[in-house]
Amino acid sequence: MAKKVSKHSRAARRNEIDEPEAKSLASLPRAEKTDLTSAIIRATTKKNEDLLNNKMLKKDVKSGQVQKKNVAKSNLESNLNKIRMERAIMQSDILQDKILKSKQRSKQVQLTRKQNWDAINQAANEVIRSRSGTPADNGETPEQDEQPAEDAMEEEDKFYSDDEEESTSEYKPQRNAFDLLNDEVEA
Q1: Which of these, 69, 83, 128, 165, is most buried using a 10 Å CB contact count?
Q2: What DSSP assignment string belongs to 75-141?
Q3: 110 near 185, Cβ under 8 Å?
Q4: Does the keyword Cell membrane apply (predicted)?
């Protein structure tokens, strides 16, 4: 017996095989009423409308329960939103505090650096005064910007002329200006 040819074979894909089913269906007469689509569409739309009406009626009957759940759910959401807003405000307050503290730290660092430079400048001025022969202020703050510019120029000339005279004399080692700095200063 010969093996039956499969419908998925190469010959079947090329339509080389005559199928008896296709021939028998081709010889049958067509049905008279073939326009069934409009009837099917009308039936499905009617069914969908009925289902929707039933669903709406059930929702109206259970509306009290559903509303309570919705109210509780909306209250929960509003409470969560309030909590989130409070957390956000607290977080922003923390951030503002950090920024404020950072600015205060930077001002403090600048102030200590300025004070240290003031101490160094004061020590340098004392050295200059001791070389030029003027008496020290004994801790009093020097008056600034009261001398005219010409007097300042004369003092500088005297300072440089004194340096030239001292360079010929015996050299005295200067003390380190950074020794005046406090040990607590951050760099």
Answers
A1: 128
A2: HHHHHHHHHHHHHHHHHHHHHHHHHHHHHHHHHHHHHHHHHHHHHHHHHHHHHHHHHHTPPP-TTPP
A3: no
A4: no
- What residues contact residue 155 under an 8 Å CB cut-off, 6+ apart? 132
Q: What is the largest CA-CA distance in the chain?
A: 139
Which residue has better confidence, 183 or 121?
121
Q: What is d(CA 77, CA 71) in angstroms, rounded to the nearest whole number?
A: 10
Cα distance between the two ends of the chain: 104
Confidence of residue 51 (pLDDT cuts 50, 70, 90): very high
pLDDT-based confidence at 47, cuts 50/70/90? very high
Helix (H, G, I), strand (E, B) or coil at 30: coil
What pTM was computed for the model?
A: 0.28
Q: How far is it, in rounded angstroms, from Cα 170 to Cα 53?
A: 116
The whole-angstrom separation of Cα 93 and Cα 105 is: 18
Could you tell me the two tokens for 34?
């073939």
Q: Report which of residues 125 and 145 the model is more confident about.
A: 125
Residue 182 is given by DSSP the state -
